Amino acid sequence: MSSRGIARRLTLQLGMLALLALMLFPLLWMLRTSLTPSERIFGAGLGLLPVPPTLEHYSYALTRVPLLRYLLNSLLVATPVTLVQLLTSLLAAYAFARFDFVGRTVLFWLVLGALLVPDTVTIIPNYLLIADLGWLNSYQGLIAPQAASALGIFLLRQQLRAFPTALLEAARLDGANSWQSLWLVVVPSLGPVLAALGITFFLQAWNEYLWPRLIATDEAMLLIQVAIQRFNSAEAGAQWGPLMAAATIASLPPLLVYLVLQRRILATFVNSGVKG
After folding, report:
1. Is there a single domain that holds both residue 120 and residue 245?
2. Are residues 45 and 76 located together in one domain of the fold?
3. Could you give the CA distance from residue 2 to residue 204 in angstroms, rounded to a whole number?
4. Structure letter (DSSP) for residue 182
5. Do 200 and 223 fall within a single domain?
6. Residue 164, preceding bond cis, omega within 30 degrees?
7. Is residue 227 predicted with pLDDT exceeding 70?
8. Contact 31, 53 (CB under 8 A)
């Protein structure tokens, strides 16, 4: 490799390291603050970890409010939302990509148009509908308005349009109907795409704040993102140690989902490469 190529590669790697450090800095600052004693938070100096570290903020966060209950609520909302969005996106995308029916193009452009509508525009109609159904302070009220994703439909439709038609024809010759072709032929081939979408849907549902704060007002129905606000009151000011401890705990489930599904994506690519 020429010296110019080495310099270009080194510059690229340094740039990537700088971007990585920039993205990791908020997480490291959050973890460091959560382990720093209260009296040293604003005077702890530099360093990756405080000296000495303490778990007092985690103890306070877990005992001051029922944080584990709020984590469970968020899991009981984010997980069904992710699964339902994947299902509805897959079925709608399969219909748009593989079936010819009256109004298909118009309906697809309406789906794309939904991407241009801000979420704040639909909050009041959704709230009135959920209230009329009697679903306030309920899991179904938190889940139902997020049951479909225009972005997921669009992305999966583009993937299915590029799907080899020969595989579907072979399945049809073997006696498979459209439903069987979808689940036995198409879905296994879309593993990495579905995993990536699953990560996106889960993160969106997990980090949702405005809708859960509007719908879930009972103490037992609060989600974790709303509960974190409890450590930032107007009267007492921000309790930075417990606030960062609660935020660190809240970041663990999305991190685990990302790690699990990322391994699924990488394993699929590796296995595809080996078979090839």
Report:
1. yes
2. no
3. 45
4. I
5. yes
6. no
7. yes
8. no
Structural domains in the chain (count): 2
Residues 41 and 80 in one domain: no
Find all residues with CB under 8 Å of 53, minimum gap 6, and list them: 35, 36
Domain extent at residue 38 = 3-54
Phi, psi dihedral angles at 267 (to 5 degrees): -65, -40
pTM for the structure as a whole: 0.85
| Contact present, 94 and 182 (Cβ < 8 Å) | yes
Structure tokens given for 161? 């349009």
According to DSSP, the residues that pair with 233 across neighbouring strands are 237
* Residue 51 pLDDT level (bands cut at 50, 70, 90): low
Handedness of CA 70, 241, 58, 32 (dihedral sign): positive
At residue 275, does pLDDT exceed 50?
no
CATH number of 227's domain: 1.10.3720.10
**In terms of C-beta density within 10 A (0-12 exposed, 13-18 middle, 19 or more buried), how is residue 90 classed?**
buried
Percent of the chain with pLDDT over 90: 40
What does DSSP say about strands 232-233 and 237-238: parallel, antiparallel, or unpaired?
Answer: antiparallel
The DSSP-derived string for 214-257 is HH--SGGG--HHHHHGGGEETTTEE-HHHHHHHHHHHTHHHHHH
Q: Which helix (H) or strand (E) holds 169?
A: helix 165-173
Categorize the per-residue pLDDT at 233 as very low, low, confident or very high, splitting at 50, 70 and 90.
Answer: low
Residues 160 and 75 in one domain: yes
Nearest residue to 32 via CA among 271, 175, 245, 198: 245
Interior angle at CA 28, CA 23 and CA 34, nearest 5:
145
